[in-house]
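Why predict the complex rather than its parts? Because the way molecules touch one another can change local conformation, and only a joint prediction can capture that. The input here totals 230 residues.
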Amino acid sequence: AQTVTQSQPEMSVQEAETVTLSCTYDTSESDYYLFWYKQPPSRQMILVIRQEAYKQQNATENRFSVNFQKAAKSFSLKISDSQLGDAAMYFCAYRSWTSGTYKYIFGTGTRLKVLA
Amino acid sequence: DGGITQSPKYLFRKEGQNVTLSCEQNLNHDAMYWYRQDPGQGLRLIYYSQIVNDFQKGDIAEGYSVSREKKESFPLTVTSAQKNPTAFYLCASSPWTSGGETQYFGPGTRLLVL
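Output of the joint prediction:
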């Protein structure tokens, strides 16, 4: 079964600095999608970035980028020029094809604190 | 504006009572999902549905029931058999076509037991 692991329960970063959140996953599939979601104090889940496994190029969305290492099954999120509004829980997720349907598997999350 | 709505925002359940959480989407998505979120844990899948009148159990379906009579709606009932229902519940939807890999979420419902 596929699993997603976020080994950092909490991280802190100084405003304007860069921080990297880690995510590893386990799968036997060759084609899949990976996601990072942000959950601010409002608890609304917001898509930050997504990566298609068959694409070699790392996805980028403004200050957010990923380091996708397919062989190592690693999918880390880098936040550059951190802002106070980046403070939130961040969840890594994997979309799997299981029993004829798509299911999304989430990690346990990393709480990011941004220090002024 | 297209999106997913959940109601109510807060819900209180008395002992032995069934309660229903509403989830509606106007994104024309085929698939809909219910998740439960507890403190310190990720999202756990309760039920999901790919098409109208069809749904499957997720990882923690015991004590819950769903229906999918319309494409836009996927209500979740928390039954009295669910002994620990206090949690945050999230509804999500996604397309079922190529290019529709992203799951979108509603704002959630907080369920508390009196």
